[in-house]
Design goal:
alpha/beta, 434 Repressor (Amino-terminal Domain), Endonuclease, Chain A, 2 domains, 6 strands, elongated
Length: 276
């Protein structure tokens, strides 16, 4: 084809979406105008999305999934384009989290997103805005993603979720007492679910704590493993089993050393009552 622009999917989330869209169109032998007719838009619009000049809207991605018969693949891909306030690597991680059969997470300092109440999430991001770390629009984007992630995991069959929280997560106040009371109630509800395990890693674990930073290990439906970890500036998604298996082993050690779910629930109930 003449004047066919080559796409670099690693250039940006926009470019990656466009690369996938073009590949699906090429597989079916459709022109841009033919795809546009099926989707109810213009060939110029298709061209702009494919070349990364225009980001895909949720409506565009949903329409493309319908036309290609790809479930929600392109909708999940479009989230990576929209979430510009997130650390590099996290939008891609979220697409895998939404399909995982098992989620094992360890968090330090704050309640993890999958367990946050909307009020807790809003308070957390409002503080980031106060520090000029993000804009108010980006804060709204992050809070919206918390809701989306939680909704994605409310599926059948439900994924198994193992959550180990450093004691700092529950001791750090966030907002006024009513926000923390609701957040503690949310943790207790989470612990009662049939597909979850909640544990607190107490400070007294000391050197026996295998992780110093948050870590997540995903088990996918095909039993494949991947891990996700963050530094201050970026996230890293690891798919090589040689690297993930030692992390999984360390996570099992963490669970063995942490408080039992019963003891963890008792600690949260005491904090909710305002007793040490």
């Amino acid at each position: 084809m003449l004047n066919r622009k080559e796409l670099d999917p690693e250039k940006s989330p926009n470019a990656k979406f466009g690369h996938v869209l073009r590949a699906l169109r090429d597989e079916r032998g459709w022109t841009q105008d033919e795809l546009a007719e099926r989707m109810g838009c213009s060939g110029t619009h298709i061209s702009a999305v494919e070349t990364g000049r225009r980001p895909p809207t949720p409506r565009f991605a949903a329409s493309a999934d319908r036309v290609f018969g790809t479930g929600d693949r392109l909708q999940r891909q479009s989230r990576a384009v929209r979430h510009t306030a997130l650390l590099e690597g996290f939008p891609e991680y979220v697409t895998h989290e939404a399909r995982a059969a098992e989620v094992r997470l360890y968090e330090v300092g704050v309640i993890p997103g999958l367990l946050q109440t909307p009020e807790y999430a809003e308070t957390l991001e409002a503080d980031a805005v106060r520090r000029d770390a993000i804009t108010p629009e980006q804060a709204s984007e992050r809070v919206e993603l918390v809701t989306e992630r939680q909704a994605t995991l409310a599926r059948s069959p439900a994924p198994l979720i193992f959550a180990v929280l450093d004691e700092s997560c529950v001791l750090r106040p966030m907002g006024d007492p009513s926000i923390m009371d609701a957040q503690f109630a949310r943790l207790l509800e989470f612990a009662e679910l049939p597909n979850t395990v909640l544990q607190i890693a107490p400070f007294r674990m000391g050197a026996r704590r295998p992780f110093s930073l948050p870590i997540t290990v995903l088990t996918m439906p095909d039993r494949g493993l991947m891990s996700y970890a963050e530094s201050a500036h970026r996230g890293h998604l690891e798919r090589e089993s040689n690297f993930v298996l030692p992390i999984l082993a360390a996570y099992h050690q963490l669970q063995a050393e942490a408080l039992s779910q019963a003891a963890s629930v008792a600690m949260i109930e005491q904090l909710r009552k305002g007793t040490p």
